[in-house]
Design brief:
mainly alpha, 8 helices, 0% strand, globular
């Protein structure tokens, strides 16, 4: 669906550019935008690779297992899980840890593995809570956004932390509140 929207926007730009006799401006803006996208991608690649690599080293070195033992109780309470095997615990803890560090791309693989495992167990309640918590995107350190800000030349890329904490908390409150209200109607 999204590809149709993009194609429609591109077609509209070309059509209106041709109608107004500014097709050359549309073409140069498209090239400038593509160049900017490539430059931005390279400027944030370093921090993203660093944190993704650190997360993988934590997993391979057993640190994730140690962390998962410590943070499992609050996560299991949030998801309403009584028992979970080691692989599910590590995937859930890896997903939550990466999200708290603002690393959505590093959080996705363990989150998907955990979702598949919860789905295979038939645990729809925990699966829906996992999706809700991931959608709320609670972040303590907004690494990706800070990398984007640094890529665009911000002198203090982490000065947005208070705003991120406020919006993360509000998103979490809205997501969990909505789930509770909708859950009451579905029973």
């Amino acid at each position: 669906m999204l590809s149709y929207i993009w194609m429609g926007m591109m077609a509209a730009a070309i059509i209106f550019g041709a109608i107004n006799g500014r097709l050359e401006n549309v073409s140069s803006a498209a090239m400038a935008g593509a160049e900017s996208a490539v430059n931005l991608s390279f400027s944030i690649a370093g921090p993203m690779l660093l944190w993704s690599g650190a997360a993988e080293l934590m997993r391979c070195g057993g640190m994730l297992h140690a962390i998962s033992r410590r943070i499992w109780k609050p996560i299991s309470a949030l998801l309403g899980l009584k028992n979970a095997d080691r692989e599910l615990r590590e995937n859930l803890c890896g997903n939550f840890s990466a999200n708290l560090l603002g690393l959505g791309n590093a959080a996705t693989p363990p989150g998907l593995r955990a979702a598949e495992m919860l789905g295979a167990q038939g645990n729809g309640k925990a699966l829906s809570r996992l999706i809700i918590l991931n959608t709320a995107s609670v972040q303590l350190i907004p690494t990706t956004v800070a990398a984007l800000r640094a890529g665009y030349g911000s002198a203090a890329p982490f000065d947005i932390c208070p705003a991120v904490w406020l919006t993360s908390g509000a998103a979490l409150f809205a997501a969990v509140g909505s789930a509770v209200v909708i859950g009451k109607f579905l029973k």
